[in-house]
Amino acid sequence: MHSKVFRRENSTYVLQIFKEDAPELTVEKLNAEYVYLCRAYSAMPTLIPRQCLRRPYVGASLQESVLVKDYVPHRTELALTTVDPAELDATTRQQIAQFLSITRNLLADTSADQPSMVPDFIDPDCANLVIDIRTGDLKLIDTNRLISTRKPARLYAEGQVLDVTEDRNFIHGLLFRRMLFLEMKFLDRSRDDLMRDPAYARYLSRAGFETLFAASEAAGESL
Ligand SMILES: Nc1ncnc2c1ncn2[C@@H]1O[C@H](COP(=O)(O)OP(=O)(O)O)[C@@H](O)[C@H]1O
Ligand SMILES: [Mg+2]
Q1: Prediction pTM value
Q2: Ligand 1 pocket check: which of 5, 80, 123 to mutate, most ligand atoms within 8 Å of Cβ?
Q3: What is the pLDDT of residue 112?
């Protein structure tokens, strides 16, 4: 939505430019989020493609610059939302499990002074977290606009849960919805098991879980 991605035929790189309509995304934020992601997912060295920002002059804004990223060939049929897990090799399934485990721990970490951030893998097509068709490796290709756990963590500290029916909570609602779906699909976790998992139960009421399970079904992400 706020960026455009280009690739010359056969190139091993993509170029990404950022639109003027989102000035809050700055060079500093982009770089800091990339460093944060690489550290948070350091146990998965193949997850995050290399990227390098080319700035036309010292001090150029992000919107004047070009982000060069390693190209990751992927296919819609292999999107995590639609692919049959049985068709994936064991290594890919193991990487998905590891991604979910690290992300679950980031969500559950309410102890740190700084709230955690998790990547944006909530887009409808699941085109940000993909399987590399050459190697079968899981790849996080959208590395910007991380989702902060600040709000759910604050609610938790105040003894409240996230009201997922509120429009203003839709991003966190989508995040938990996608996470619960992936847990069920790739880790065979049951609804009851997820509802007892403190990583989620601290943020969601029983009704909240039910709302997200229903929303997941409605979005075609059902089991
Ligand atoms: N490294 C990459 N390799 C292949 N395709 C990419 C890569 N980076 C982005 N894309 C494609 O461009 C789309 C938008 O890029 P993304 O980084 O997700 O931008 P945005 O933050 O605007 O969503 C991705 O969903 C994917 O289809
Ligand atoms: Mg994206």
Answers
A1: 0.96
A2: 5
A3: 64
C-beta 71 within 6 A of ligand 1: yes
From 141, 144, 145, 146, give the residue whose CB has the most ligand 1 atoms within 8 Å, as the site to mutate. 141
* CB 34 near ligand 1, within 6 Å: no
Pick from 77, 123, 94: nearest CA to 187: 94
Give the residue from 17, 27, 36, 19 showing the smallest Cα distance to 147: 36
Counting as low any pLDDT under 50, the low residues of the chain are none
Using alpha carbons, select from 169, 166, 173, 172 the residue that is nearest to residue 215.
173
Going by their DSSP bridges, the two strands 117-118 and 66-70 should be labelled as unpaired
Residue count of the chain: 223
User: CB under 8 Å to 132, separation ≥6 — which residues?
Assistant: 72, 73, 74, 138, 139
Query: CA 15 to CA 4: how far, in whole Å?
Result: 8
Rg (CA), the chain: 18
> Which residues, in sequence order, are CB contacts of 82 under 8 Å at separation 6+?
76
Residue nearest to atom 11 of ligand 1 (CA): 5
